[in-house]
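Note to self: user wants both folds in one dump. Writing first protein now.
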Amino acid sequence: MTILVPETQLTQQFTVNIPNMFAGGNLTFALTSQYSHQSTPLLVNKIVKSNARYTTLEVTFPIGFGDEHKNGIYNWRLVQNAVTLEAGLVKIVTDPGGGLGMKEFISTPETEERVSEVFYRPSY
């Protein structure tokens, strides 16, 4: 699944393969980054629609979520009363996406005089 999180609309809907779900207990949409392994638990606001095939849920991402460059692939779990109901992978795309956290390289005379060594692998 892919969830687009624009800066102006942090409340998003997603659909899971759970039929006839009812809102009993706390529902949590837990995102775990495959890159940093940090978990972001999000409370499910409401069940938008549930029928014999699927359930559509609504979740609100925290303010500033996109500014932290959270684009990527996440493991997600839908948890109700400490029981995982369903899990899988989700691609999170934020808009505008935030900064990359890269530092600008500033050249100095010490760095300009460095000479790199190149090693060649022989071809067999």
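First done. Writing the second protein, which came from a different request thread.
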Amino acid sequence: MAVTVKKGTDDFHSVIAVDGRFTFDVRDQCLAVIDAVPPRARRITIDLTRTDYLDSAALGMLIRAREKFKGAQLGLKVKAKSPASEILEVANFHKMFRYEAI
């Protein structure tokens, strides 16, 4: 499991990528990555296209990111019909976030 932050399409876009299982075990790593997002970021994408599974702690981390980045455009990118997308849809996260299923 890896959580990373990288530059997006421009200097004002950051991408947080979560690879593998997004669970309570990576809480500290996720918080560190959220804190590492440059303050100039005005658009943040949380890329879950390589995420195999999310637990309730991961959903909490997404809510926390939403609160931290409330001044920016925040979106989720998921693989359509994946376990992660199904969990997010059941939890109605597609209604709380800008949501892109690819």
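Dump finished. Worth passing along: Residues 56-68 form the longest helix (13 residues).
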